[in-house]
Write a structure and sequence with these properties.
The chain is mainly α. It has a single domain (about 70-445), classed as Orthogonal Bundle (Cytochrome p450). Helices cover about 50% and strands about 5% of the residues. Strands 1-9-6 form a three-stranded antiparallel sheet. Strand 3 (about 325-330) and strand 4 (about 330-335) form a beta hairpin. Helix 4 runs antiparallel to helix 5, helix 11 (about 235-265) crosses helix 13 (about 300-310) and helix 12 packs antiparallel against helix 13. It starts with a helix and ends with a strand. The structure holds protoporphyrin IX containing FE (HEM). The site of protoporphyrin IX containing FE has 23 residues, from helix 11 and helix 15. InterPro entries: Cyt_P450, Cyt_P450_CS, Cyt_P450_E_grp-I, Cyt_P450_sf. Belongs to the cytochrome P450 family. It comes from Salix viminalis.
Length: about 450
């Protein structure tokens, strides 16, 4: 009776809206049920109408996804990828790495006997290497491009790429981007980058007679555009997009691995000692590590693999969408399914790794597991045709810097600080880095 009373009190338009809403929800639920009855979908948690399982991703999707995978154990199958060749970013530019590593060491040495903000120094190194390779100029230390607020632009861009936007999950409801303010932020950031790249391209066009080996990415792309050697003609927008892609993908990733490598080594003095003994044994009294020393640094390479396993810069690979209906292991995966690969979860899976939460570089000594995309338990660069095109370039920038840091200094936490006091909180975005910078005392090994 009470409900009937309520009905009587409702105005006609309200009743109409409520009826339409209920009809839409009911239709949606019935369609879902019908679809599910026909398809053999992989097991998973129940979906809510409209938003599906979105609410279960949370602030730290890599952790939520691992918890869900544990719960629905049986679909933790390893799917084989077919491996295709990818165009790669060349390892060249040794002179840039050498000069930037030397600058990193000088900057750190200046801080002794005080403490140094090592995270900041490593961040400058990663940015400067990429800026010089891509644009031919660095911007740190009052460099030219910093005047344009380039670093701030990059930070904003990365926040936009990594940030959660409801509109991404409802492509048919594009207007959501306008409601959330995402569209205007994207437009603003896009305009700033566009203006900046226009200036950079004009400068490059006006500078003539650069030696072939000193050419940066913009020079190379402009040459390709001019001589028409690419299969598909390169437009100015293509050139700008390639440069932006490299910055978005290349600076934070290199930084995160070096930052974590130094953090884990400082917190694990035995591993630090082993890594330093190895580098100093190979390089000897020579102050500068050379790229030709790197193939002999097996323990240091194992440290880097262990960092890729525990702290992959992209904990969840870039989302993929299935183009057509497929069946995997008897399960239907409908077209347009959004696929997330939880690399972080795979690196800590107790079925794949012994003591998965412990930092133990030794696990890679004498093991054939590598991160090139063939061993699916360790794929920090992804795998298959859209994996990172800069595996060799990124690894070279990490290895030479880490070797030199280990060779040039003895490392300690600031007085009064213990390993357990180090704040290792991480923030999830397009890449995942520590939120509190690492402060250390770096005592020069050479006078
Ligand atoms: C430690 C270093 C790095 C790691 C761990 C890393 C990891 C990744 C990952 C996981 C992806 C996406 C792959 C996928 O979703 O399957 C990616 C894509 C990409 N990376 Fe890297 N990356 C690193 C360094 C770099 C550097 C230094 C550059 C540039 C010089 C770079 C350029 C790119 C580009 C352009 C893409 C997009 C490729 C595409 O459009 O499909 N990366 N990287």
């Amino acid at each position: 009776m009470a409900s009937l009373q309520w009905l009587k009190e409702c105005s006609k338009p309200t009743l109409l809206v409520v009826t339409i809403f209920l009809a839409v929800v009911l239709k949606f639920l019935m369609q879902e049920k019908l679809k599910r009855r026909k398809l053999n979908l992989p097991p998973g948690p129940a979906k809510l109408p409209i938003i599906g399982n979105l609410h279960q991703l949370g602030n730290m999707p890599h952790i939520s996804l691992r918890e869900l995978a544990k719960k629905y154990e049986e679909y933790k199958e390893k799917f084989a990828y077919s491996s295709c060749s990818v165009p790669s970013v060349s390892t060249g530019y040794n002179f840039v790495r050498e000069e930037e590593v030397a600058r990193l060491i000088r900057r750190i040495a200046e801080s002794y006997p005080g403490t140094t903000n090592l995270s900041k120094m490593i961040g400058l190194y990663a940015n400067d290497v990429l800026c010089r390779v891509a644009l031919g100029t660095d911007f740190s230390g009052g460099g030219e491009y910093d005047r344009h607020g380039f670093q701030k632009m990059l930070d904003d861009y990365q926040a936009l790429l990594g940030g959660f936007s409801l509109g991404d999950y409802f492509p048919s409801m594009e207007f959501v981007h306008s409601l959330t303010g995402m569209k205007s932020k994207l437009r603003y950031t896009f305009r700033r980058f566009d203006q900046f790249f226009d200036e950079v391209i004009t400068e490059h066009r006006n500078s003539k007679g650069k030696q072939e080996e000193k050419k940066d990415l913009v020079d190379i792309l402009l040459d390709i555009q001019k001589d028409g050697s690419s299969e598909i003609p390169l437009t100015m927008d293509n050139i700008k997009a390639v440069i932006l892609d490299m910055f978005a993908a290349g600076t934070d990733t290199t930084f995160i691995i070096l930052d974590w490598a130094m953090t884990e080594l400082i917190m694990n003095p035995n591993a630090m000692e082993k890594a330093q003994d190895e580098v100093r044994g190979v390089v000897g009294d020579r102050k500068v590590v050379q790229e030709s020393d790197l193939p002999r640094l097996n323990y240091m390479k194992a440290v880097i693999k262990e960092i890729f396993r525990l702290h992959p810069p992209s904990p969840v690979l870039l989302p993929r969408e299935s183009l057509e209906d497929v069946i995997i292991d008897g399960y239907n995966i409908p077209a347009k399914t959004r696929i997330y690969v939880n690399v972080w979860g795979m690196g800590r899976d107790p079925e794949l790794w012994e003591n998965p939460e412990t930092f133990e570089p030794e696990r890679f000594i004498g093991s054939g597991i590598d991160f090139k995309g063939q061993d699916f338990e360790l794929i920090p660069f992804g795998a298959g045709r859209r994996s990172c095109p800069a595996i060799t370039f990124g690894t070279a920038a990490i290895e030479i810097a880490l070797a030199q840091l280990l060779h040039s200094f003895d490392w300690k936490l600031p007085p009064g600080l213990e390993a357990m006091d180090v704040d290792n909180t991480e923030a999830f975005g397009i890449s995942m880095h520590r939120t509190v910078p690492l402060h250390v005392v770096a005592k020069p090994h050479f006078d």
